[in-house]
UniProtKB/TrEMBL annotation:
Membrane topology of the entry: Multi-pass membrane protein
CC annotations in GO: plasma membrane
Origin: domain of life: Bacteria
Keyword terms: Cell membrane, Membrane, Transmembrane, Transmembrane helix
GO molecular function, one term: transmembrane transporter activity
Signal sequence extent: none
Pfam families for this protein: MFS_1
PANTHER family: INTEGRAL MEMBRANE EFFLUX PROTEIN-RELATED, STAPHYLOFERRIN A TRANSPORTER
Name used for this protein in its record: Major Facilitator Superfamily protein
Length: 156
């Protein structure tokens, strides 16, 4: 989104690209999940879908501001169909990659790292300037005598 604002001077394009990338996750998840369970060469299927997602993101990043918006939106929608393989799909490979004796631990670690990454991603985002300016947090004045008068009479 920030790339679209910087390169195309359009927050609308940025938001639409994010939606075009994420909405197919929901729509495609059941289909992609069923395909992943039925394909003969699962690792190849996973590698192909992950590569397709990566290529889509790369072209979106390089093409934002140069390619026409309809092309970018179509690419985001196509790339977004591979998204479920990143979020939940990789967990499905654990049964092939991890021995039975270590599988419970592997699923626990997978769940923990996914949840921590989501928490970390949310807490690492600084508040937008608009948010910060719109509702500044009240702070007590620094001097002890001024703190005695805090909060101001208008907010008591």
């Amino acid at each position: 989104m920030l790339l679209a604002i910087e390169r195309a001077d359009s927050a609308v394009l940025g938001g639409t690209l994010v939606a075009a990338l994420l909405v197919p996750h929901v729509v495609a998840a059941p289909v992609v999940g069923a395909l992943a369970d039925r394909v003969r060469h699962r690792r190849l299927f996973y590698a192909t879908t992950l590569a397709a997602y990566g290529v889509a993101l790369l072209v979106l990043g390089l093409g934002t501001g140069t390619l026409p918006p309809p092309v970018l939106l179509a690419l985001a929608a196509l790339g977004g169909r591979a998204g479920p393989m990143i979020t939940g799909g990789l967990t499905g490979l654990l049964r092939e990659l991890v021995p039975d004796t270590a599988r419970t631990r592997a699923y626990s670690l997978d769940s923990m790292t996914y949840n921590l990454s989501q928490i970390g991603a949310r807490s690492a985002d600084p508040p937008s300037p608009e948010c910060s300016a719109a509702s500044p947090a009240p702070r007590p004045p620094p001097s002890p005598s001024a703190r005695a008068a805090w909060p101001p009479a208008s907010s008591r």
